[in-house]
Amino acid sequence: MSERGKADEATVSDLLASWRNREPEARDRLLPLVYDELHRLAHRYMKDERGGHTLQTTALINEMYMRLVGLDRMEFRDRAHFIAMAATLMRQVLVDYARRAARDKRGGGVCVTSLDDHDVAGSDRSIDVVALDQALERLAVLDGQQSRVVELRFFGGLSVEETAEAMDISPATVKREWAMAKAWLHQQLAAGAS
Q1: Are 150 and 185 in contact (CB under 8 A)?
Q2: Exposed, middle or buried: residue 136 (CB in 10 Å: 0-12, 13-18, 19+)?
Q3: Integer angstrom CA distances of residue 98 from 26, 44, 119
Q4: Which residue among 30, 62, 65, 84 is least packed, with the fewest CB closer than 10 Å?
Q5: What is the dihedral of CA 63, 142, 153, 65, to 10 degrees?
Q6: Is the pLDDT assigned to residue 111 strictly greater than 60?
Q7: How many domains does the chain have?
Q8: Which pLDDT does position 13 carry in this prediction?
Q9: What is the residue range of 30's domain?
Q10: In three state form, how does the secondary structure of the chain look?
Q11: Average pLDDT value over all residues in the chain
Q12: Under a CB-based contact definition with an 8 Å cutoff, are residues 41 and 83 in contact?
């Protein structure tokens, strides 16, 4: 990591600690330091959305940020943990948006094309975000760690190493849990489509 990267990491860590100590200006100073990363994350979510989607990348970031600000007593360990929480909140925004769209217009659910490059859903089939969210909720009951790995890898766009760091587990464990969760989700989503 470059000297600037180390300085940025230290600044982010300091600001997260200040936020934890209820210093609201820390939150406002943090956003510009992580905005590019949040934008990449939101862009990743949005690139797989169906055409004509009315929610834009910047709106997703803004909605996530408003929810983040509204969280009381949130304690972030480090940058990876902060980005993981942002990913979780973006997932919630998209699921809420899909549910509203489906309610407003029958069949208006938000769809994504696949779970990562590994295509959990099968060949060229789309995955309904609401169906995926429901499957993840069922998986969380069975295996919370697998559910969290999927959330961070798919919704958060985190690498194996970043997921391992955010969850404080080994990269090998992430790979194993990711593979098992994808197989389980494939089965669940296929059963729901039939």
Answers
A1: yes
A2: buried
A3: 32, 17, 21
A4: 62
A5: 20
A6: no
A7: 1
A8: 84
A9: 3-193
A10: CCHHHHHHHHHHHHHHHHHHCCCHHHHHHHHHHHHHHHHHHHHHHHHCCCCCCCCCHHHHHHHHHHHHHHCCCCCCCCHHHHHHHHHHHHHHHHHHHHHHHHHHCCCCCCEECCCHHHCCCCCCCCEEHHHHHHHHHHHHHHCHHHHHHHHHHHHCCCCHHHHHHHHCCCHHHHHHHHHHHHHHHHHHHHHHHC
A11: 77
A12: yes
Tens digits of per-residue pLDDT, 75-93?
787 888 888 888 888 888 8
Question: Per DSSP, what are the bridge partners of residue 111?
Answer: 128
Q: Is 3 exposed, middle or buried (0-12, 13-18, 19+ CB in 10 A)?
A: exposed
Residue-level pLDDT at 186: 86
Instruction: Check pLDDT > 60 for residue 143.
Output: yes
Question: What six digits make up the tokens of 152?
Answer: 């961070």
* Weakest mean pLDDT among 22-36, 41-55, 172-186: 41-55
Task: Give the percent of the chain with pLDDT over 90.
Answer: 15
Q: Please provide residue 111's backbone torsions phi and psi, each rounded to the nearest 5 degrees.
A: -125, 150
CB 171 within 8 A of CB 160: yes
Can you tell me the distance from the alpha carbon of 144 to that of 119, in angstroms, rounded to the nearest whole number?
A: 21
